Amino acid sequence: MILKDTLRRIVNEQRQQIVSKQNSVKREILDQIPLDLHYAIIISGIRRVGKSTLLQQLLTKLPDFYYFNFEDSRLINFEPADFEKLNQIMAEEYGTSKFYIFDEIQNIKGWEVFVRSMLDNGKQFFITGSNASLLSRELGTRLTGRHINIELFPFSFTEWLSFFKKERALKTFNDYFQNGGLPQYLKYGQNSILQELLLDVLYRDIVARHNIRDAKSLQELALYLLGNVSNEFSYNTLKKLFNFGSVNTPISYISYMEDSYLLFTVQKFDYSLKKQAVNEKKIYAIDNGLVLCNSTSLSSEKGRMLENLVFITLHRKYHDIYYFKGKRECDFVVMENKKINMVIQVCYELTDDNKDREVEGLVEAMSFFKLEKGLILTYNQEDEFYVVKKYVDVKPIWKWL
Questions:
Q1: Which InterPro entries does UniProt cross-reference here (predicted)?
Q2: Which of 5, 58, 202, 330 has minimal Cβ neighbours within 10 Å of its Cβ?
Q3: How far is CA 233 from the centre of its chain?
Q4: SS3 state of residue 309
Q5: Rounded to whole angstroms, how far apart are CA atoms 120 and 103?
Q6: Residue 137 has pLDDT above 60, yes or no
Q7: Is 232 helix (H, G, I), strand (E, B) or coil?
Q8: Which residues contact 244 (CB under 8 A, 6 or more apart)?
Q9: 373 pLDDT band (50/70/90 cuts)?
Q10: Which CATH number fits domain 4-151: 2.60.40.1930, 3.40.309.10, 3.40.50.300, 3.20.20.100?
Q11: What is the rounded CA–CA span in Å between residue 198 and residue 208?
C-alpha cells in the first residue's frame, strides 16, 4: 500500500516532468498510433530507446490525459489495490479523461486487471514496457483481442539525420553506422551509457525478473553473442562453451534477451518447421552502437556490422525474416503474407575475390523461391546485372535506407 498524499505528489511531479520535456525528434512511428480505439496500445522496446519521449509526443495530440510512470523508486510498495486510489487522484487533480498513458507498467503485478476494467468503461490506454514476454503473457490472459502491439526501435537513419540536422550522404551514414541510434548515447557520446544500458537490461530486466542465480554466466553469454552478431550459433555449442548443465539454459537465457529487445535470433528457412527449429540460428543485436561499446572484437568487422544494421532495418517492418542456406548462403529472405517476396545479400564491398560467392548465394535463393529480382546491399557500391536471367540490383545501404 502507498499513502494517498505520497501518490498525489508523485502524480503531480511526473506530469510536470513529462509536459516540460524539450522538443525532440518526431518518431516515425507516432503517426501509426491509433487515437480513437477503446484498446490498450502497447509500445514496447529496449530501455532508453525513447518510449517516454514518444509518449510525450503522443500526449500533445490528445485533448486531455492521465500520465503515470511506474518505474519510480518511490512506488516500491505500490499494490494492485492502489490503482483505484491512483485513478481517484488523477481525476481530482486533472478532471475527467478517457486517455491513460502508463510508462513501464509491467513492474506492477496484476496491472492488466485494472486496465481491462477501465477498457470496459470506454477508456483508452497507451502503455510502454521493456519486456515483450511479460506484457504479452499478461495481455493474453486478460486483454485478448483488446490490445495492439507497437514496437519502438532506435533511431532510423532518417530520424538520426533529423536529430543531428544533417543531410543524407555517405559520411553521415558512416556516423550512423558506427554509433547506432540510441538517443541518450547520441546526445552525450559516452561509451559508459551503452555499457550501463547492457547491465540494466541483464540485471533489471532478466536476472531480477527471472530469479537467475548465475548472473555471471548470463553476462558472459550476452557479451559473447554481442561479439558474434551476424554469425550462426547452436544451443549445443553454447552449452559446451559455457559449461551449462543443460541446453535449456542457453535457450532460456537467449529467450530472455530477445524478450528484452537486446538480441534477436533468425532461423534458417525450411519448409519443414521441425527442421527449421533444430537448424543453427543467426544472432543479431538491437543497435550497432550498443554492440561496439560492449565488444572489443568487432571494430574491424564492418561486413558483419553492416549485416546487423540491415537486419534491424528489416525488423522494423517485417517479423518473418530468415536466412537461406543451400550450396551457398543468402543473408536474408523476407516473408510477407506467408510468401517469400524479398531476398537480400549483404556485402561490405564486392570484389573479384568474393563476387562469385555473394552473387551465387543470392541467385540460388532467387531460384529456390522463384523470384526474378534480388538485392545486394553494400557500403557504397552501385551496379546492376543479370545472372541466368535473374536481375541483381547492387545498392549502397545508405541509399536503400
A1: AAA_14, DUF4143, P-loop_NTPase
A2: 5
A3: 21
A4: helix
A5: 21
A6: no
A7: strand
A8: 217, 238, 250
A9: very high
A10: 3.40.50.300
A11: 14
Q: In a 3-state reduction of DSSP, which class is residue 348?
A: coil
Sorted by where each begins, the domain ranges of the chain are 4-151, 318-401
Identify the CA nearest to 322 among candidates 363, 276, 259, 263.
276
> Alpha-carbon distance 220 to 216, whole Å?
6
Pairwise CA distance, residues 255 & 52, whole Å:
25
Cα–Cα distance for residue pair 154/194, rounded to 1 Å: 13
| Dist CA 241 CA 249 (whole Å) | 12
CA distance linking residue 206 with residue 178, whole number of Å: 27
Distance (Å, rounded) from C-alpha 150 to C-alpha 364?
A: 35
Separation between Cα atoms, residue 191 and residue 182, nearest integer Å:
12
CA distance 59 to 307: 36
Cβ pair 202, 222 in contact under 8 A = yes
User: Could you say which DSSP state residue 73 is in?
Assistant: G
- Give residue 299's pLDDT: 67
CA 209 – CA 139 distance, rounded (Å): 17
- Other C-beta atoms lying within 10 Å of the C-beta of residue 236: 13
What's the CA angle centered on 160, arms 175 and 376, to 5 degrees? 65
C-alpha cell at 93: 487533480
Q: Which pairing describes strands 373-378 and 390-396: parallel, antiparallel, or unpaired? A: parallel
The band of 180, judged by pLDDT with boundaries at 50, 70 and 90, is: very high
pTM equals 0.94
| Residue 150, phi then psi, degrees to nearest 5 | -130, 130
